[in-house]
Amino acid sequence: MTTLYEGAFAKLNLTLDVLDKRPDGYHDIKSVMQTISLRDDIQIDLGTEKPWCIVCDKEGVPTDESNLCWKAAKLFFETVKKDPDGLTITITKRIPMQAGLGSGSADAAAVLRALEALLPSGMTSAEMTLLAKSIGADVPFVLRGGCALAEGIGEVLREHNPDITIWAVEPEHAAILSGGSIGTHIQMGIGDGIIPEILNQNIYDDICIVKDDEAIRTSKELASKEGIMCGISSGTNVAAAIRLAKKLGRGKTVVTVLPDTAERYFSTPLFE
User: How confident is the model at residue 86 (pLDDT cuts 50, 70, 90)?
Assistant: First the structure.
């Protein structure tokens, strides 16, 4: 038998704006959420050779298939196509239920983290986010933790097109999302050496690293071939978009943004 332990941390909604009503009857929201030190403790026993069960020290917590921990484990093992040969999840409950603190969601996220650490599924962060979202609306956030804005173009795009591919783009000498260090580069406006706390790093599927000379060359080609006078960071984005288009092949649509114009770069190598 294998036993796993994982903390399940509560979350607070620091702000909450209720926006327009959607066709499905729910409302869009914008909320800044933060995980806090209040936690449940999750113990997972695998290989018990007994039927699945949930054990909790607090009354009122479901101990059947309606528990989000059960659902998280079931979806995970379906994804990795493995049978745990019996499973018991024990919840030591400290987070109040139905108090807006993500009690059940935090427990489910803890189950996913523990199982993923033991049995790497091979899922991308985006795929894991989609799996978490299928368990509950707050599960993707508490799976990652920290501080985040519970709204984003990536989530909206994925809701309408789950098969979308999203890339993050970084300069070669400031690839901190990829674990690199901050250095000197000329792709102004990106690669500033910080990762915003509100950035949902589960949104993108891959990170594209662009060299300075590739960004400049692409910017110049946009001017000479397309008549688009844009800056170096626009060249960065388009260079990444071209790579993605080549990877996806014919019949796919790739969208990027040109965030700057050329007149800001008269004193840079773009005009050499």
Answer: very high
CATH 3.40.50.1100 fits 167-271, yes or no: yes
pLDDT at position 152: 53
| Of 40, 138, 212, 260, catalytic | 138
> Does 40 participate in catalysis according to the annotation?
no
pTM, two decimals, is 0.56
pLDDT tens per residue, range 107-127? 999 999 999 999 998 888 778
CATH 3.30.230.10 domain locations along the chain: 2-151
Which residue of the set 11, 71, 133, 220 is catalytic? 11
**228's tokens:** 């688009």
For domain 2-151, the CATH architecture is: 2-Layer Sandwich (3.30)
11 catalytic? Reply is yes
Give the whole-angstrom CA distance, residue 174 versus residue 64.
48
Stretch(es) of the chain classified as CATH 3.40.50.1100:
167-271
